[in-house]
Amino acid sequence: MKIKPASIPGFLKRPDPAARAVLVYGPDRGLARERVDALTRTVVADIADPFRVTEVPAARLTEDPARLADEAAAQSLMGGRRVVRVMDAGDAFTRTLTAFLEDPPGDALVVVMAGDLGPRSSLRKLCEGADAAAALPCYADDGRALEDVIRDTVARHGMSLERDAMAFLLGHLGGDRLLTRAELEKLVTLKGEPGEITLDEASACIGDSAALGLDDLSMAVADGDDAQAQRVLDRLLKGGTGPIPVLRAVSRHFQRLHLAAGGVAAGRSPEQAVSSLKPPPIWKHKDRLTAQVRRWDGARLGQALDLLLEAEADCKSFGPPPEVVCSRVLLRLAQGARQGARTGRGRGR
Q1: Which residues contact 150 (CB under 8 A, 6 or more apart)?
Q2: Any idea which architecture 143-207 has in CATH?
Q3: What residues does each domain of the chain span?
Q4: Domain 210-343 is in which class?
Q5: Which end of the chain has less neighbouring CB within 10 Å, N or C?
Q6: CATH class of the domain whose range is 5-137
Protein backbone atom coordinates (compact mmCIF):
# COMPACT_ATOMS: atom_id res chain seq x y z
CA MET A 1 0.00 0.00 0.00
CA LYS A 2 1.14 3.52 -0.79
CA ILE A 3 1.02 5.95 2.13
CA LYS A 4 0.14 9.48 1.06
CA PRO A 5 1.98 12.39 2.76
CA ALA A 6 -1.16 13.55 4.57
CA SER A 7 -1.63 10.06 6.06
CA ILE A 8 1.96 9.61 7.28
CA PRO A 9 1.55 11.13 10.79
CA GLY A 10 -1.41 8.87 11.55
CA PHE A 11 0.31 5.81 10.10
CA LEU A 12 3.40 6.44 12.26
CA LYS A 13 1.23 6.47 15.37
CA ARG A 14 -0.85 3.45 14.40
CA PRO A 15 0.40 1.42 11.41
CA ASP A 16 -2.14 -0.58 9.43
CA PRO A 17 -2.30 -4.02 11.12
CA ALA A 18 -2.28 -5.66 7.68
CA ALA A 19 1.20 -4.29 6.95
CA ARG A 20 3.76 -6.90 7.98
CA ALA A 21 6.54 -4.95 6.27
CA VAL A 22 6.98 -1.19 5.94
CA LEU A 23 9.44 0.35 3.49
CA VAL A 24 10.80 3.72 4.65
CA TYR A 25 12.71 5.34 1.79
CA GLY A 26 13.80 8.71 0.44
CA PRO A 27 16.66 11.18 0.09
CA ASP A 28 16.36 12.50 3.67
CA ARG A 29 18.12 9.77 5.64
CA GLY A 30 17.68 11.65 8.89
CA LEU A 31 13.92 11.76 8.45
CA ALA A 32 13.91 8.11 7.36
CA ARG A 33 15.80 7.09 10.51
CA GLU A 34 13.40 9.13 12.64
CA ARG A 35 10.41 7.38 11.08
CA VAL A 36 11.98 3.93 11.40
CA ASP A 37 12.36 4.65 15.13
CA ALA A 38 8.77 5.90 15.35
CA LEU A 39 7.44 2.72 13.73
CA THR A 40 9.58 0.62 16.07
CA ARG A 41 8.10 2.38 19.10
CA THR A 42 4.58 1.40 18.04
CA VAL A 43 5.62 -2.16 18.92
CA VAL A 44 8.47 -1.79 21.45
CA ALA A 45 8.78 1.15 23.85
CA ASP A 46 12.56 0.80 24.08
CA ILE A 47 14.07 0.65 20.60
CA ALA A 48 17.37 -0.52 22.16
CA ASP A 49 15.72 -3.67 23.61
CA PRO A 50 18.03 -6.47 22.36
CA PHE A 51 15.36 -9.15 22.86
CA ARG A 52 12.60 -7.49 20.84
CA VAL A 53 14.46 -5.37 18.28
CA THR A 54 16.84 -6.85 15.70
CA GLU A 55 18.73 -4.80 13.12
CA VAL A 56 20.18 -6.57 10.09
CA PRO A 57 21.89 -5.20 6.95
CA ALA A 58 19.86 -5.94 3.82
CA ALA A 59 22.95 -7.35 2.11
CA ARG A 60 23.18 -10.10 4.73
CA LEU A 61 19.56 -11.10 4.21
CA THR A 62 20.03 -11.06 0.44
CA GLU A 63 22.84 -13.59 0.87
CA ASP A 64 20.70 -15.70 3.24
CA PRO A 65 17.01 -15.07 2.32
CA ALA A 66 15.68 -17.63 4.82
CA ARG A 67 17.04 -15.57 7.69
CA LEU A 68 14.34 -12.90 7.26
CA ALA A 69 11.59 -15.45 7.87
CA ASP A 70 13.55 -16.88 10.81
CA GLU A 71 13.93 -13.44 12.39
CA ALA A 72 10.25 -12.62 11.87
CA ALA A 73 9.12 -15.92 13.39
CA ALA A 74 11.49 -15.82 16.38
CA GLN A 75 9.98 -15.38 19.84
CA SER A 76 11.35 -12.87 22.33
CA LEU A 77 12.83 -14.40 25.49
CA MET A 78 11.05 -11.71 27.49
CA GLY A 79 7.73 -12.00 25.63
CA GLY A 80 6.02 -9.46 23.38
CA ARG A 81 5.99 -8.74 19.67
CA ARG A 82 9.29 -8.13 17.92
CA VAL A 83 10.59 -5.70 15.27
CA VAL A 84 13.06 -6.64 12.55
CA ARG A 85 14.80 -3.59 11.11
CA VAL A 86 16.41 -4.12 7.69
CA MET A 87 18.94 -1.40 6.90
CA ASP A 88 20.40 -0.01 3.66
CA ALA A 89 18.05 -1.91 1.37
CA GLY A 90 17.91 -1.55 -2.38
CA ASP A 91 16.35 -3.34 -5.32
CA ALA A 92 18.63 -6.33 -4.68
CA PHE A 93 16.48 -6.98 -1.59
CA THR A 94 13.23 -7.21 -3.60
CA ARG A 95 13.34 -10.97 -4.17
CA THR A 96 13.94 -11.69 -0.47
CA LEU A 97 11.08 -9.46 0.64
CA THR A 98 8.77 -10.87 -2.05
CA ALA A 99 9.28 -14.39 -0.72
CA PHE A 100 8.60 -13.20 2.82
CA LEU A 101 5.36 -11.42 1.89
CA GLU A 102 3.96 -14.46 0.12
CA ASP A 103 3.52 -16.21 3.48
CA PRO A 104 4.77 -14.04 6.40
CA PRO A 105 5.65 -16.18 9.44
CA GLY A 106 5.27 -15.06 13.04
CA ASP A 107 3.94 -11.63 13.95
CA ALA A 108 7.04 -9.42 13.90
CA LEU A 109 6.91 -6.05 12.15
CA VAL A 110 9.58 -5.79 9.46
CA VAL A 111 10.76 -2.21 8.87
CA VAL A 112 12.94 -1.73 5.80
CA MET A 113 15.03 1.43 5.43
CA ALA A 114 16.25 2.41 1.97
CA GLY A 115 17.70 5.42 0.23
CA ASP A 116 16.16 7.44 -2.58
CA LEU A 117 14.15 4.98 -4.71
CA GLY A 118 12.74 6.15 -8.03
CA PRO A 119 9.27 5.24 -9.33
CA ARG A 120 10.76 2.35 -11.31
CA SER A 121 12.37 0.77 -8.24
CA SER A 122 11.27 -2.86 -7.90
CA LEU A 123 11.42 -2.66 -4.10
CA ARG A 124 9.26 0.45 -4.01
CA LYS A 125 6.77 -1.05 -6.49
CA LEU A 126 6.52 -4.21 -4.41
CA CYS A 127 5.70 -2.41 -1.18
CA GLU A 128 3.31 0.06 -2.83
CA GLY A 129 1.36 -2.75 -4.47
CA ALA A 130 1.33 -5.47 -1.81
CA ASP A 131 -1.56 -5.72 0.66
CA ALA A 132 0.81 -6.92 3.39
CA ALA A 133 3.32 -4.09 2.93
CA ALA A 134 3.43 -0.30 2.93
CA ALA A 135 5.73 2.29 1.36
CA LEU A 136 6.45 5.49 3.25
CA PRO A 137 8.44 8.24 1.43
CA CYS A 138 10.83 10.62 3.22
CA TYR A 139 11.62 13.79 1.31
CA ALA A 140 13.63 16.71 2.63
CA ASP A 141 11.73 19.22 4.75
CA ASP A 142 10.96 22.48 2.99
CA GLY A 143 8.43 25.27 3.21
CA ARG A 144 5.65 24.70 5.73
CA ALA A 145 6.96 21.30 6.87
CA LEU A 146 10.40 22.72 7.71
CA GLU A 147 8.86 25.73 9.43
CA ASP A 148 6.76 23.40 11.60
CA VAL A 149 9.84 21.37 12.60
CA ILE A 150 11.76 24.53 13.53
CA ARG A 151 8.88 26.13 15.42
CA ASP A 152 7.96 22.96 17.33
CA THR A 153 11.57 22.27 18.32
CA VAL A 154 12.24 25.71 19.80
CA ALA A 155 8.75 25.87 21.37
CA ARG A 156 9.55 22.80 23.49
CA HIS A 157 12.20 24.94 25.17
CA GLY A 158 9.88 27.90 25.71
CA MET A 159 11.38 29.86 22.82
CA SER A 160 10.12 31.62 19.71
CA LEU A 161 11.77 33.17 16.65
CA GLU A 162 12.00 36.60 15.13
CA ARG A 163 10.65 36.66 11.59
CA ASP A 164 14.13 37.28 10.15
CA ALA A 165 15.58 34.48 12.29
CA MET A 166 12.97 32.07 10.95
CA ALA A 167 13.74 33.16 7.38
CA PHE A 168 17.44 32.55 7.98
CA LEU A 169 16.83 29.06 9.38
CA LEU A 170 14.52 28.18 6.50
CA GLY A 171 17.33 29.07 4.11
CA HIS A 172 20.02 27.07 5.91
CA LEU A 173 18.29 23.94 7.19
CA GLY A 174 16.09 21.20 5.77
CA GLY A 175 18.31 18.86 3.78
CA ASP A 176 18.39 16.23 6.53
CA ARG A 177 15.95 15.96 9.45
CA LEU A 178 18.55 14.73 11.96
CA LEU A 179 20.97 17.50 10.98
CA THR A 180 18.17 20.05 11.27
CA ARG A 181 17.29 18.88 14.77
CA ALA A 182 20.97 18.78 15.82
CA GLU A 183 21.50 22.36 14.62
CA LEU A 184 18.33 23.53 16.39
CA GLU A 185 19.33 21.82 19.64
CA LYS A 186 22.65 23.63 19.40
CA LEU A 187 20.78 26.91 18.90
CA VAL A 188 18.49 26.51 21.92
CA THR A 189 21.46 25.49 24.06
CA LEU A 190 23.27 28.68 23.02
CA LYS A 191 20.17 30.74 23.78
CA GLY A 192 20.05 29.16 27.22
CA GLU A 193 16.74 30.53 28.48
CA PRO A 194 13.17 31.03 27.23
CA GLY A 195 12.63 34.00 24.96
CA GLU A 196 12.75 35.14 21.35
CA ILE A 197 15.67 34.00 19.22
CA THR A 198 17.08 36.83 17.13
CA LEU A 199 18.61 36.78 13.65
CA ASP A 200 22.04 37.53 15.15
CA GLU A 201 21.75 34.53 17.50
CA ALA A 202 20.59 32.22 14.73
CA SER A 203 23.30 33.26 12.26
CA ALA A 204 26.02 33.10 14.93
CA CYS A 205 25.08 29.56 15.90
CA ILE A 206 24.02 27.93 12.65
CA GLY A 207 26.45 29.84 10.49
CA ASP A 208 26.77 28.42 7.00
CA SER A 209 27.99 24.94 7.93
CA ALA A 210 24.63 23.17 7.59
CA ALA A 211 24.29 24.18 3.94
CA LEU A 212 27.89 24.77 2.90
CA GLY A 213 27.97 22.31 0.00
CA LEU A 214 24.54 23.37 -1.28
CA ASP A 215 25.53 27.04 -1.09
CA ASP A 216 28.73 26.30 -3.00
CA LEU A 217 26.69 24.59 -5.69
CA SER A 218 24.08 27.35 -5.93
CA MET A 219 26.76 30.03 -6.22
CA ALA A 220 28.65 28.10 -8.90
CA VAL A 221 25.48 27.61 -10.99
CA ALA A 222 24.48 31.28 -10.80
CA ASP A 223 28.09 32.34 -11.52
CA GLY A 224 28.12 30.22 -14.68
CA ASP A 225 30.95 27.99 -13.42
CA ASP A 226 29.65 24.68 -14.77
CA ALA A 227 32.86 22.77 -13.99
CA GLN A 228 32.74 23.74 -10.31
CA ALA A 229 29.00 23.09 -10.20
CA GLN A 230 29.51 19.55 -11.49
CA ARG A 231 32.31 18.88 -8.99
CA VAL A 232 30.21 20.04 -6.03
CA LEU A 233 27.14 18.18 -7.31
CA ASP A 234 29.12 14.94 -7.59
CA ARG A 235 30.39 15.39 -4.02
CA LEU A 236 26.90 16.03 -2.67
CA LEU A 237 25.36 13.05 -4.45
CA LYS A 238 28.15 10.73 -3.31
CA GLY A 239 27.67 12.04 0.23
CA GLY A 240 24.02 11.00 0.25
CA THR A 241 22.27 14.28 -0.61
CA GLY A 242 19.39 13.52 -2.98
CA PRO A 243 18.67 15.34 -6.26
CA ILE A 244 15.45 16.90 -4.95
CA PRO A 245 17.08 18.64 -1.92
CA VAL A 246 19.77 19.88 -4.34
CA LEU A 247 17.19 21.33 -6.75
CA ARG A 248 15.29 22.98 -3.92
CA ALA A 249 18.44 24.57 -2.51
CA VAL A 250 19.32 26.02 -5.92
CA SER A 251 15.72 27.21 -6.29
CA ARG A 252 15.94 29.07 -2.98
CA HIS A 253 19.09 30.82 -4.22
CA PHE A 254 17.44 31.83 -7.49
CA GLN A 255 14.36 33.05 -5.61
CA ARG A 256 16.62 35.41 -3.64
CA LEU A 257 18.20 36.61 -6.86
CA HIS A 258 14.70 37.17 -8.26
CA LEU A 259 13.81 39.33 -5.26
CA ALA A 260 16.97 41.35 -5.71
CA ALA A 261 16.31 41.71 -9.44
CA GLY A 262 12.90 43.10 -8.54
CA GLY A 263 14.62 45.74 -6.42
CA VAL A 264 16.84 46.68 -9.35
CA ALA A 265 13.79 46.97 -11.60
CA ALA A 266 12.27 49.33 -9.00
CA GLY A 267 15.27 51.65 -9.24
CA ARG A 268 17.75 50.35 -6.67
CA SER A 269 21.35 49.62 -7.47
CA PRO A 270 22.39 45.94 -7.46
CA GLU A 271 24.36 46.60 -4.26
CA GLN A 272 21.32 48.10 -2.54
CA ALA A 273 19.05 45.30 -3.74
CA VAL A 274 21.39 42.61 -2.42
CA SER A 275 21.86 44.39 0.92
CA SER A 276 18.08 44.54 1.41
CA LEU A 277 17.64 40.74 1.20
CA LYS A 278 16.29 38.98 4.29
CA PRO A 279 18.09 37.18 5.75
CA PRO A 280 21.09 39.27 4.70
CA PRO A 281 23.79 37.48 2.70
CA ILE A 282 26.99 36.60 4.50
CA TRP A 283 29.84 38.97 3.72
CA LYS A 284 31.90 36.51 1.64
CA HIS A 285 28.98 36.02 -0.80
CA LYS A 286 27.84 39.63 -1.10
CA ASP A 287 30.04 40.65 -4.04
CA ARG A 288 29.26 37.45 -5.93
CA LEU A 289 25.52 37.91 -5.39
CA THR A 290 25.78 41.48 -6.66
CA ALA A 291 27.54 40.25 -9.79
CA GLN A 292 24.88 37.60 -10.27
CA VAL A 293 22.10 40.19 -10.02
CA ARG A 294 23.85 42.13 -12.80
CA ARG A 295 24.09 38.93 -14.87
CA TRP A 296 20.51 37.69 -14.40
CA ASP A 297 17.46 39.87 -15.05
CA GLY A 298 14.01 39.16 -13.67
CA ALA A 299 12.65 37.45 -16.80
CA ARG A 300 15.56 35.02 -17.08
CA LEU A 301 15.41 34.27 -13.36
CA GLY A 302 11.72 33.43 -13.74
CA GLN A 303 12.60 31.03 -16.55
CA ALA A 304 15.31 29.46 -14.39
CA LEU A 305 12.85 28.87 -11.56
CA ASP A 306 10.40 27.25 -14.00
CA LEU A 307 13.16 24.91 -15.22
CA LEU A 308 14.05 23.92 -11.66
CA LEU A 309 10.40 23.23 -10.83
CA GLU A 310 10.02 21.10 -13.95
CA ALA A 311 13.19 19.20 -13.09
CA GLU A 312 11.86 18.36 -9.62
CA ALA A 313 8.65 17.03 -11.20
CA ASP A 314 10.72 14.95 -13.64
CA CYS A 315 12.67 13.47 -10.73
CA LYS A 316 9.41 12.13 -9.32
CA SER A 317 8.14 10.63 -12.59
CA PHE A 318 9.16 7.88 -14.96
CA GLY A 319 12.08 8.88 -17.13
CA PRO A 320 15.82 9.42 -16.79
CA PRO A 321 17.39 8.82 -13.35
CA PRO A 322 16.86 11.80 -10.98
CA GLU A 323 20.63 12.36 -10.75
CA VAL A 324 20.78 12.81 -14.53
CA VAL A 325 17.80 15.20 -14.54
CA CYS A 326 19.40 17.25 -11.75
CA SER A 327 22.79 17.46 -13.45
CA ARG A 328 21.31 18.44 -16.82
CA VAL A 329 19.25 21.34 -15.52
CA LEU A 330 22.05 22.74 -13.35
CA LEU A 331 24.54 22.65 -16.23
CA ARG A 332 21.94 24.27 -18.48
CA LEU A 333 21.48 27.09 -15.98
CA ALA A 334 25.24 27.55 -15.57
CA GLN A 335 25.62 27.81 -19.33
CA GLY A 336 22.78 30.33 -19.37
CA ALA A 337 24.61 32.43 -16.77
CA ARG A 338 27.69 32.59 -19.00
CA GLN A 339 25.54 33.51 -21.99
CA GLY A 340 23.92 36.29 -19.99
CA ALA A 341 27.34 37.67 -19.07
CA ARG A 342 28.50 37.64 -22.72
CA THR A 343 25.40 39.25 -24.21
CA GLY A 344 24.97 41.84 -21.46
CA ARG A 345 21.34 41.05 -20.74
CA GLY A 346 21.70 41.62 -16.99
CA ARG A 347 20.36 44.72 -15.22
CA GLY A 348 22.06 47.51 -13.31
CA ARG A 349 25.32 47.58 -15.32
Answers
A1: 161, 166, 169, 170, 173, 180, 184
A2: Orthogonal Bundle (1.10)
A3: 5-137, 143-207, 210-343
A4: mainly alpha
A5: C
A6: alpha beta
